[in-house]
Amino acid sequence: MLHYILIFIIYVGFLGIVFNLKNGYRADKNTVNWPPAVFFGCIYFILLTALYEKILVSILLNSVNSYSSFLAFSTIGSGTYMILFSLGTLALSKLMLCKSPDMRTYIVFIIGLFINVTLMYRVANLNYTEIVKNFGDAVFENFYVTLSQTTRTSTANLLLDLKWIVMCVPSVFYIFQITKDLRENSTYY
């Protein structure tokens, strides 16, 4: 649950920082219709969290039936979530008339995505090892139950925390890019 709070803080921080920096600029050049941006941010956050959990449970109940499918769905799910989260940040920036990401932001995103998927792969391996210790050959009889009744190791928890932090880095980097750009351009108004 804490990872969703981190994402919420980034979206709210994004809106707050851009609002603060654009406040007082020339209206004809930097007009932002704030209610749609805030509404989009709220709806997108809710969909990103609620739908992600719903899809995750559905996959665990219906699609995971082998070690390789568990690894595949874990890594694909984590990478997809990072992509969707970053697309939300990009959409917010477009609604608020901000500059597009530069090449450095895309490079940070690609590196972050690679690290995110690699960390999730390692976490899935650690989790699977623990599941097998607890349930033996009955791992896939009801995978959702076996997964939810297995306690993750401290290493897996640490790697998951690190994965969520890595996932947020490209959006935070983009916020710094927008902040720098808006501050540089504000001297000309």
Give an overview in words:
The protein contains seven helices and no strands. Residues 24-28 have low confidence and may be disordered. α1 (2-22) runs antiparallel to α3, α4 packs parallel to α7 (154-186) and α5 (103-135) packs antiparallel against α7. The radius of gyration is 20 Å and the shape is elongated. The protein is mainly α.
Give the SSE map.
Blueprint: H1 2-22, H2 27-30, H3 34-62, H4 67-95, H5 103-135, H6 143-148, H7 154-186
**So how many helices?**
7
Computed structural class: mainly alpha
SSE order in H/E notation?
HHHHHHH
What is the first-to-last residue Cα distance?
Answer: 43 Å
Query: What helical percentage do the residues reach?
Result: over 70%
Number-wise, the strands total 0
Rg measurement, Å: 20 Å
Give the mean pLDDT: 82
- Which runs of at least 5 residues are low in confidence (pLDDT < 50)? 24-28
Major β-sheet profile: none
Which percent band covers the strand fraction? under 5%
- Shape label: elongated
The assembly state of the depicted protein chains is single chain
